[in-house]
Write a structure and sequence with these properties.
Length: 246
Amino acid sequence: MTTVRLPLFPLNTVLFPGLVLPLNVFEERYRAMMRELLKTPEDEPRRFAVVAIRDGHEVAPSSPGLPDPTAVPERGPSAGFGADPLRTFHKVACVADAATIRERADGTYEVLATGTTRVRLLSVDASGPYLTAEAETLEEDLGDEAGALAEGVLRSFRQYQERLAGARERTLATGADLPDEPGVVSYLVAAAMMLDTPTKQRLLQAPDTASRLRDELKLLRTETAIIRHLPSLPAADLTRGPTSQN
């Protein structure tokens, strides 16, 4: 088992390997993380783990609020995540490589990172200025019939795109080439589909590529059928979902 210690960035979203993640970093705990990452030479990866929040708040309260307006806001690296942060997060996360970390004049950061590999969280440490995690690397096994499944998923994904474009009353762009490598297909489709966080998390932690593709094939057929029977659904309803403040 290969283990690694990484800075931990919890979000209300799931990051997949190969996908790009823009971040607006303004909380002090994550600003401290970026300051530390900037100490890494530019020719080396500036890595941190992005984990989806199971039960907690992406942004810690910064002022008293309801129901007790006199309550003192939480402070520190684990603010908003309870006494045991490990129980607050999903167990499988994605390592992100920050290609760009740009500090603004006000001390906040604009970050552009890319998902690389999956890891399973073993422990979370809140003793420093930001959360860190001890994690084991998860290998990506293809599983049985991954190639054939990827072809089926791509066909179904195209139909899903067409139905979605029709429901939004938009024209579907046809110039973009879709990949054919099973692992890449599985992560791209998982990220592109309009699914809730628990479902995306299930896809991230699938035991192998083939299992993820089988799950996606079922989801695509179900979602396409739903969209087909709801042609008048407003585009705002189709795209409504939580937006990361970070």
